[in-house]
From TrEMBL:
The species this protein was found in: Labeo rohita (Indian major carp)
Residue ranges of domain Peptidase M60 in the record: 352-537
Family annotation (Gene3D superfamilies): Peptidase M60, enhancin-like domain 2
InterPro entries: M60-like_N (IPR035423), Peptidase_M60_dom (IPR031161), TCAF (IPR051244)
Entry's Gene Ontology BP terms: positive regulation of protein targeting to membrane
Any one GO MF annotation of this record: transmembrane transporter binding
One Pfam family this sequence matches: M60-like_N
Domain of life: Eukaryota
Protein's name according to its UniProt entry: TRPM8 channel-associated factor-like protein
CC terms in the record's Gene Ontology section: plasma membrane
Amino acid sequence: MEKLAFFLFQNKSLIVGLLYRKDFKDDLQFLLEGVSEFDVQGESIASEVMVHGPLAFPIALTPAGKAFIAGAYYGQGRVILLSHECYVARDSLSTFLINAIKWLDEDRKGVIGILPSLKAAHTVLSKSGLDCQLTGFRKDLSVYICTSYSDAQCAEIQEFVAEGGGLMIGGHAWYYAQTHCGCNVMTDYPGNHILNKMGLSLLGNTLIGGLYKAPEIEQSCKEGYHFCNMLHRFAEHVYLGKELINHEQSCFKQLGNDCASYLQMRCHDSATYTSVVAILSDIVKKFGFPQVCSNCPVKSAKDCLMLHIGSEVYKVSPDPDALLPYIIKDRPKFPTVSNARVRISAKTEGSEEWISTGLYLSPGMKTNIAVPPEIIRKNWQVQLGCQTDDIGGAKVLKRAPVVHEQFPLDAEMVQVCNLWGGLIYIIAPPQSKVNGVEIVVHDAVQAPYFKSGETSVADWVDRIRQAPAPWAELEFENIIMTLESEFIRHLDRPDKVAKLWDTIMRSIADLAAKPNKFPRKERFVADVQISAGWWYY
């Protein structure tokens, strides 16, 4: 095994935490014997596999370096993960699949148990000459083949592998991610309950099928991307000043994405996980966090990586308040209001609806929200921040890629916080109907908020427009505008602005031959940068 050291500089002493990564050359030679390509063409859409354990390794990758088949050692056993269950039954992958079954079986020539719903896989894998049987999980199997869509026997399967059994598991997570809005795929997806401990995870993003070349084994072992190895090299670069070669620098974006995914596992009872959190926290403190804004955009790949790491490690840090000054150095202090009561009324149809509260949280500010029983555990959410566009694909960043957070309203009292702060919204799910239920926000900053029919011009001029929050909202009949407060501080007649926009929106409705009153108000949100198009300031 190759010994990998992570270096942390803390209290003027060098602390060395050790991780081990196996040389997988022999494994790849066995698995790829007679395999020149992976034919995963067709309509099946797979998920990306994240390889994060020191005893896990990628096997098949797209030209962009995204893994869709991977392997791992776990305890005394072995694992093969395919990121779509149909791959387990593909004739075009039969050579690899038979190699994989034999690698998992470790020459025991035992029973290969195949989940009964994978009948086509039984046909392909029976060519291995091994005893393949359609059966549920049994402890007397040599290898068990199943999908990633159930965790009903999670502990038993993990124990089976740890004691020397083989596991081949196929499935994707993208559909789960798309149909479970607000979920954490790393912690909530059933297959990841089994896989995370084994150093592998299925991500929520998609991979399109194709005809992909098998990796060059020597090159893959020497230069292939691996999360543990790349994080080790980046830590050496930060703490010891070791230069990174061009190939390693080209992996910064992948490393940032993987750091974000890995941190979302929130395995605070794992020594490896807590070590990685500590390493990344120290890197943020030592290397510094780019103070990104429109006048100081982030352009280098290294700064983009730090922007990603800092944003994500803050969310899982055991002491986020200690990390906050390193991430946001200039945090204005605003006066707050206590126990702000907000009445919520909503009648949604086929889509969710944001409900403005007129309240704001400063960067890193925590608050508790008392939730009425009418909306608890009914898919309602609280959102912090109005800019929801993910700009992570941009080469130049004028803000962090993601600056909003959402939290489910699943308890009588919910604590919320967002590194970047933001306006507070309540999100009503589709097909919801409530009238005048009340939430109580324990601590918040008042925001300038004008609502036609409810806010008087006198109150606006005398008091509301001077509310301290840096973001303001103007809510009219059919449109809500969110913009920086500096643009409305001297607005004396919001009623005239409302009249103008009511006329504009009614004209749009007439042009579309629709009722003048929209079923859901349109929103215009100012942003310093958007992911596509050109309309931003």
